[in-house]
Design brief:
Structural class: mainly alpha
Shape: globular
Distance between the termini: 14 Å
Number of domains: 1
Largest sheet: none
CATH superfamily: 5' to 3' exonuclease, C-terminal subdomain
Radius of gyration: 12 Å
Oligomer: single chain
CATH architecture: Orthogonal Bundle
Helix content: 55-70%
Strand content: under 5%
Amino acid sequence: MEYWIWLTELKGIGPITQKKLLDYFKTPARIYAAAEEELRSVPGIGSSLGSQFVKPIHWMGLFQLWMS
């Protein structure tokens, strides 16, 4: 569930781009785990949006603390 929240909270990433990513990677967890180069290879994403996916190093750990 936390990956869905992460995906919906990305700045500049709307429902159309989310669908493109999900069509390509199948799950939010796989999007999260993807390297920036993989994200750029998704049709319609390109280099302009690839940097939007930079993940804070401890984001998931902080999320899990918040949920507990």
